[in-house]
Amino acid sequence: MEADHPQASVEAKSIGKRLEFVELAVVNQEGDKEATEEDELQRLLKPNVDELPVEPPSSVEFNFVRYFAPDFMKEGHDQYVYRHANGLCVIGLAPSHVAFKDDGGVTEVDFNVGKSDRSSMKVTGKRKRNAQHFESNSALCKVNTKDASYIVRCCVKGSLLEVNDRLIKQPGLLNSSCCITMYQQALLGFSS
């Protein structure tokens, strides 16, 4: 019986060493996990300077999702839609639109299309009363060049909030800053 006791104590010591080893392994794994989380946090808070862009994105690039409608309703009638997260859509002519390929570019913008003049419309209040509701194929305005005129369509279903009145007085703004800073129409989009 005495011979079993020393052997039992040896087994207990080896089990104790195994438990100690397992406890150390668990502590090391948790320590490694905490270290990798700390490294990840530091990487996110302090980005690598070499990975940053040369110049920051513009507010349009940062705040809006860009969509292009090539050949909308007719060939060459390319338009863009910038959609904000709050549902606001900005609609305009894409640089590849046929109107910009004519000599002299856009010479006149006429918002008197259909039954009412779009530029005389005034939206009021939180619920945007008096806003005109449009389907995706509704005409917003007519863009004239020296030789032809083109109808600009809505592209999205929504309510017209405002038009850029500066385009009536200075239609050349479309030629100079198309698809960059000027907006043609502002629409409040909503799902069908």
TrEMBL record:
SUPFAM superfamilies on file: Single hybrid motif (SSF51230)
CC per GO annotation: nucleus
Family annotation (PANTHER family): PROTEIN ABITRAM
Domain of life, per lineage: Eukaryota
Protein name (Swiss-Prot/TrEMBL): Protein Abitram
InterPro entries in the cross-refs: Abitram, Single_hybrid_motif
Organism (species): Kalanchoe fedtschenkoi
